[in-house]
Write a structure and sequence with these properties.
Elements (H helix, E strand, L loop, with lengths): L1 H14 L1 H28 L1
Helix pairs in contact: 1-2
Length: 45
């Protein structure tokens, strides 16, 4: 799913460097959020 969206966004990213930075920040934020959620769930189990 991530790979597919990356291929679709490639043209937009090449045209606009800001979009690439924004996408990178979003991906990092989602990764951190997912890690926190996993830790939280494991904490309950």
């Amino acid at each position: 799913m991530v790979l597919i969206s990356s291929k679709i966004d490639n043209n937009v990213i090449r045209r606009n460097g800001y979009s690439r930075q924004l996408l990178l920040i979003t991906n990092i934020s989602l990764s951190i959020l997912a890690t926190l959620c996993n830790s939280f769930i494991k904490g309950w189990v």
